[in-house]
Each structure stands twice: as structure tokens, then as C-alpha cells.
């Protein structure tokens, strides 16, 4: 970390261009990293052996001292374990002269993370022009997860405070055998961004139409913290699957509660998979058909072995969601009601609403969270994990408690909860699809969307209905999209009947809407009597 005087000697007025690929690591030292740096061959999560505790403590202190020096020099690093790329981004702007250019490869967290808000605000304010290319690692540019996204950033530093600030250019690019291919472009005005994202986090919109839609939903919605709305959440990770692992029990034991894992929760469904055998990555799980949900966990835990502050949650109804997700998954957010008498692992964070802990509140939240409109918004800010900050950055629709739309959502979600264990018949499938379509239409209208808006929303879910029968001459089924748009057309009073006609034709061929691909194997999961009773 060179002193400022060193840089001043090299370029008294600053550099015309600063180009770099800063390190992306956090300033911390783990036992795993220490052992690897010492030449030990190991994988993350393996047991620790042969650790020189004295030498490790010494190096850890050195890293802590370096961290404190960084924080003193670059206050925008915030608290906790500093990200080196934030410090380097700050340095790049410090070294660049007015009207100069900063070009760098930086993790995608710069445009979305809570911890980068200060540096994001700083560089946007100090830049005359901002161009950001979002690039995923599928082409394996770096030896990291292929789902990881990074940014190619090009910024022109403003010459003065009066310099014109141009709109932000947001590009989406992907690797090809010959280089990069642009797959989407959006121009975002800075005032317009600040109006819908007060932390200036950038949604990953790929066109002017998507930016218009994002803004429309954001402006129509309300903050979770809006006074009087009743959505102020109390999040909790009830049990840590690693820390509390020694307390888990492998069989039913008097006084022990079932432990809920992420794979056991899907949209409007609780108990969608059951443990068969094995543990860890080699564990075998059975997927239960729609209408056949039941609780069959891998582990149990005594309530007294839960963290004391969380024990009361096992006694009450709450909502939970899978926190492992992705922008290109079949669906990104999957949430359900979590009944009393179970404990959720850390991959299923749960939520209580202290201002209104009623069952109706939970039913409405689950309806909103599992809707395509909410999911579409979340996909604009998501990477691979649904953290609390990102989740709450998606506004809730304006819904008056006990108003007609509210009551419709409560009724439909309650029916879905009942149908979840009513038996895997075709009637169950079709009724659940009907209620989910009605919920999607009701939430979309609450966000102020029309039929054209919903068509754009559904373009973002291209791998729905895998395994379902497509219409004649079409390569794949679109029954879920058609069913949603048919419900939307009915809800908005549209005269268009094309979507309804397509959905009816698809159902006649045996296709079913809202069925996850893992259950779309020709419908074998449906009880024979149910299939026969419907032709």
C-alpha cells in the first residue's frame, strides 16, 4: 500500500488513465487458507490437522493490522472484513485526473451489495460517464464459480462539480470463442435510478423496456418498512446446519422436532421432498408429487438444543424461503408457510411480522413472494443467494388489509395449503394451477401491471414447463405462461382469448401448469384414478 507521495511524484496532476484488475479477496485469514498457503493439500470443509497455532495467530494479527490500516485510509470500506477491490476502486479514482478514464474488472457486488453503497455513491458522483458491462463466468474467464458475475467498468472522471453527468450505460455481455457478445443494453438516468433505488444499487435490466417495467413496479410498490403497512420483518436463521450439527438426531426421538432443509420447501408447498437414505452429498431424497407433500426429514433436534433466542419460533406459524437461488433458475424465490412444531435449518430463513402476526398476513406474503412479478424484480438484483438486504429491496405491492384483493389472496393461498396434501390427482394439479394463476394476476394488478407487462415478465422464465407436452408444431410447452396470461386477461377485463385458448388446448393434451421440471416426467406421479377420471 504505497504512500500517496509515491503516486504524486509519478504523476503530480494524476494519471490520464488507470487500468487494473484488483484482487477480489476479503482481508481475512482462515485456517483453511493458512494451511493451503503453507503447502497443505486440502479441500474446504475438511478437518483441520497439523495447524501451527502460534504461527497462525501471528499471521492473523498481521492481517488484522493491515485491515485496520486499510480502514483508516479508505473509510468507504465500512466495517467488518474489508473487500480489497473496494479499496483499489477508491485508489483508482484517487489516482485519476479530471477527464481521465478508470477501467477495471470488478466483482458484481459493486452494483448490488449493501457494503458497497458508499463507494458506489462516491464513484457515481465523481464520474462524468459510467459504462458497466455485466459478464458471467460461464466462459470460464476466471477459475471461480461459473455463476459468478463480474463487471468491466469504464468511468470518465468529472473535471469539476459542474461537469455534466451522463446517464449510466448498462451492458450485458457473454463470452464467445472469439471474444464478447452483447446480449442486452439499457440506459439509466441517474435521477431516475435514485428515485427507485435510494442506495443506487443497479438492477440488471437488459433493455429500455425492462428498465421501464422495473421502474413501474418500484414506483407502484411500498417499502417493507412503510409505517402502517405491517410488513416490517423479523428474520431468523433458526439453526445453523454446521454449528449445531453435533446436536442433530438421525431418528424420531421423544421431545425432538423435525429439522427442515432447503430442499423440503417449494412455492406454496411444505414437505416436498423426503429423506430416504445417506447423508451429506450422497444423501438420497424422494420428490413428492403435487398434492402429496408430507414431512419426512433427515434430522431431528431438541428445542432445548436450538439457540435460546430462537426457541420460541418453533412454537408458532411463520413463513420461510429457500435462500439458495439464481437468476436463471426455473424459479428464483420459493416460499411457504412453516408450521409450528418444526425447526428450520439456515438455508430456510424464517420471517415473523411482529406488527401483524396473523395467519392472513403470512398467506398474503407467501402469495406475493411466489408471484412472477415479485420473482422478476428479485432476479434483477440476485446472484446466488437471497439475503435479507436483497429481498427487502424489492418493494411490496400496495394492498389494503381486508380489501377485496387481500381477501382473494388469502382465500387462494389457504386453498393451496389445503391442496398441498390432498392427494396427487389431476384434479389437485389443475386446481392448484388455477389458484396460482389467480394469485399471479392479482399481485400483478396490485403492482399496476397490464397484460403486456406480464408478457415481458414471463420472458424471464424460459425453462418453465420442461417435460410438459407442447402444442402441435411448437418445440416446447408454454402452458404456465399461457395460464398466467389467461388469468391476467380475465382479471384486467381484456378481450384477448388467445392465452385461454392455448392453455385449454395444452391441458387437453395432458400438459399441466406450475409443475416443477423434476416432477414433469409424463405425469407418472399422478394417481391413476385421477388421470382416468379426467379422460
What does this 3D model show about the protein?
The chain is an alpha+beta fold and 535 residues long. It folds into two domains: 4-220, 3-Layer(aba) Sandwich (Rossmann fold), CATH 3.40.50; 234-533, no CATH class. Helices cover 34% and strands 17% of the residues. The protein has helices at residues 4-10, 31-37, 53-73, 84-95, 109-112, 117-126, 190-196, 208-220, 359-369, 372-379, 388-392, 404-419, 426-446, 451-458, 479-492, 498-508, 528-533, and strands at residues 15-20, 96-107, 127-136, 149-157, 168-176, 179-188, 234-236, 256-260, 265-266, 269-270, 273-277, 284-287, 300-302, 318-321, 335-338, 343-344, 350-352. The strands form five sheets. A six-stranded mixed sheet has the order 1-2-4-3-5-6. Strands 7-17-14-15 form a four-stranded antiparallel sheet, covered by helices on one side. Strands 13-8-16 form a three-stranded mixed sheet, with no helix packed on it. Strand 9 (265-266) and strand 10 (269-270) form a beta hairpin. Helix 12 packs antiparallel against helix 13 (426-446), helix 14 packs antiparallel against helix 15 (479-492) and helix 15 (479-492) packs antiparallel against helix 16 (498-508). The N and C termini lie far apart (74 Å).
Structure summarized in a few sentences:
With about 525 residues, this protein is of the alpha+beta class.
How would you summarize the topology of this molecule?
Layout: H1 4-10, E1 15-20, H2 31-37, H3 53-73, H4 84-95, E2 96-107, H5 109-112, H6 117-126, E3 127-136, E4 149-157, E5 168-176, E6 179-188, H7 190-196, H8 208-220, E7 234-236, E8 256-260, E9 265-266, E10 269-270, E11 273-277, E12 284-287, E13 300-302, E14 318-321, E15 335-338, E16 343-344, E17 350-352, H9 359-369, H10 372-379, H11 388-392, H12 404-419, H13 426-446, H14 451-458, H15 479-492, H16 498-508, H17 528-533
Parallel strand pairs: 1-2, 3-5, 8-16
Antiparallel strand pairs: 2-4, 3-4, 5-6, 7-17, 8-13, 9-10, 11-12, 14-15, 14-17
Helix pairs in contact: 9-12, 12-13, 13-15, 14-15, 15-16
